[in-house]
Design brief:
93 residues; 7 strands; 44% strand; globular
Length: 93
């Protein structure tokens, strides 16, 4: 099993996980449940009625001009955490 498959399996077992973004000048963690493995990427989906969708849409549109629906993260880090800290870390470009 490669690293991206490990992350996808972990997300499936967790059922709900958190996406951390920046809201203004403050970090904000939001629960996410939908994900799917597409090739070598884990893709996520967020309802277009949610504030995180609007925030990410604005940032994404400014950078690419495209509309955000199903998305994947670039230059991302996945951390598997336990009660005492980080157990495993994977970085994806």
């Amino acid at each position: 099993m490669n690293e991206i498959e490990k992350v996808n399996d972990f997300l499936g077992q967790a059922q709900t996980f958190y996406l951390t973004t920046v809201d203004g000048d403050r970090p904000k963690c939001r629960p996410v449940a939908f994900h799917m493995l597409s090739g070598d990427r884990v893709c996520f989906g967020i309802g277009d009625f949610k504030e995180v969708y609007k925030q990410m849409q604005k940032i994404y549109n400014e950078q690419t001009g495209y509309k955000l629906e199903i998305f994947h993260l670039e230059d991302a880090t996945a951390e598997f955490r336990g009660m005492l800290g980080i157990n495993e870390t994977y970085s994806f470009a």
